[in-house]
Write a structure and sequence with these properties.
There is one protein chain. It is built from nine helices and ten strands. The protein is globular, with a radius of gyration of 18 Å. Helix content is 37%, strand content 23%. The strands form two sheets. A six-stranded mixed β-sheet has the order 6-7-8-3-9-10, sandwiched between helices. Strands 2-1-4-5 form a four-stranded antiparallel β-sheet, with helices on one face. By secondary structure, the chain is an alpha/beta fold. Bound molecules: adenosine-5'-diphosphate.
Length: 252
């Protein structure tokens, strides 16, 4: 059984935009899959359908044998614990401490009441410190999140996702807002930690060279359709051209 199966997923937004036009692929445990494609191709929509930040209009998504797309609220909460996510714009609570941001990753495990009052256990706090140490932020624990640089904020994002103990990590253009040095650092942390913790990763990227460096498999999408699936070696210049230029050719 694959860890994740995406079956004929389509998404049309309320304004009629067909963001996904029937996407199929499978993700096996331990893979580091990178989704590439031009801006507006549907990468972000696809990733968000996996944890249902966006509701697919058709098709289904199966995670560990369970249909995410039809899960009720309770089941969805349980499935979401296992799926961490990091965002292009970090999505931290800016006025809250670095430590509290990481502890936020634990909310899916808490009752609504414990969560509301931030009643984290001492084990949870210890684990959060350890995670922050792991991403090199041991000395920033009590700072406000918005006092950190972009690269540091994204490391908090990674630590928060890891606090969930995920088996799948979704990364939506995690380095798009960062300078080249921070970008490399973030990709290295993401890749190494996923490998060490046996976390499967599905990562959207805009940069083809970065995709080729880290991916075990690459999926190329354009205009809501999968137009490539293969290893980094199979992603030839012609294929890259096809993924990125298709829109031009179609409209020419
Ligand atoms: P990518 O991540 O590859 O840049 P997106 O998934 O963000 O692509 O967008 C795919 C298409 O869906 C684009 O045409 C975009 O404008 C559109 N889109 C994204 N979000 C919405 C929304 N909330 N409402 C309407 N259209 C949207």
């Amino acid at each position: 059984m694959s860890l994740l199966e995406v079956n004929n997923v389509k998404k049309s937004y309320n304004d009629g935009t067909m963001a996904l036009k029937g996407i199929d692929f499978k993700v096996e445990e331990g893979e580091f899959i990178v989704v590439i494609g031009p801006s507006g191709a549907g990468k972000s929509t696809l990733l968000r359908c996996v944890n249902r930040l966006v509701e697919a209009s058709e098709g289904n998504i199966i995670f560990k044998g369970e249909d995410i797309t039809s899960a009720n609220r309770r089941k969805l909460k349980k499935i979401r614990r296992e799926i961490g996510m990091i965002f292009q714009s970090f999505h931290l609570i800016e006025r809250s401490s670095v430590l509290n941001n990481v502890l936020h990753g634990r909310l899916g495990y808490m009752s609504d009441l414990r969560g509301m009052f931030y009643l984290f256990s001492s084990e949870e706090k210890k684990a959060a410190y350890t995670l922050l140490d792991r991403v090199g932020l041991k000395d920033q624990v009590y700072k406000r999140a918005d006092e950190l640089s972009g690269g540091q904020q994204q490391r908090v994002g990674i630590a928060r996702a890891l606090a969930q103990n995920p088996s799948l990590m979704l990364a939506d253009e995690p380095i798009a807002s960062l300078d080249p040095i921070s970008s490399e650092m973030i990709m290295n942390y993401l890749y190494t930690i996923c490998r060490e913790e046996k976390i499967t990763c599905l990562c959207n990227l805009h940069q083809v060279d970065v995709a080729k460096k880290y991916a075990t498999r690459i999926i190329g999408i354009n205009s809501g359709k999968k137009v490539f699936e293969g290893t980094p070696d199979e992603l030839t210049d012609e294929e890259i051209d096809r993924i990125y230029n298709q829109t031009k050719k179609e409209s020419a």
